[in-house]
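Let's practice the habit of predicting before peeking. Look at the sequence and jot down your guess about where helices and strands might fall. Then scroll down.
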Amino acid sequence: MKILVNGIPSNLRFSSAHVIPGHESCGYIHGHSYFVDIVIEGERAGKFDFVVDFKEVKEYTKAICDELDHRLLIPVFNDLVEFKDFDKEKDSIFNLKKRHSIHFKIDGKGYTIPGVDCVLLPLPYTSAEELAKFFAETLARKLSETYDNLKYVSVCVNEGIGQGAEYRKDL
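Done guessing? Here is the structure:
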């Protein structure tokens, strides 16, 4: 059986700025008002014969949305993003996240952004495709702590009405 969670009426939304380094038009910092739709398939189980509790799915997804909301999303593992005093091969992303200011260059353009205004993501891009994968894998990992009856978690991250990317994480 499948359960569906529609992001707009469920308030699974976030507004963020991002950049797709090297892209002709998306290579500039710009923003979107995103919303997140979820499909989960599994067997009915447990005391209430649920596939999964809607409340938990929305709670976990909302926590991710809240972390990204009103921030600049920076893809740490993009080859065109260079961070000051940070070696992607050796240094921990957690140490980078602790900085008061994030200093980086993209295609020779230098930026200094307060650390609290950024979300440093362990991704090669902050595209809808990569964000959908990030949400699906994070949500699947969290739900797997409680549920062993799930077949997959699918997440669609929409950059607006009519365009989004969907990623399915099989369990």
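How did you do? Helices lie at 54-68, 93-97, 128-144.
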